[in-house]
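Can't paste images in this forum, so I'm doing it all in text. The chain is below; anyone willing to post the predicted structure tokens underneath?
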Amino acid sequence: MAASERRIMIASLAILILSCFAWYQTTLIGIADS
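Text version of the structure:
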């Protein structure tokens, strides 16, 4: 149980980091375009 909970926590953390990075990248591209 604890192992699967930890895996889920790591997975959601990875998704959060990836979405933040994607948002940051698109924001930079938007600033560079304008």
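Helices lie at 2-33. The CA atoms of residues 10 and 16 lie 10 Å apart.
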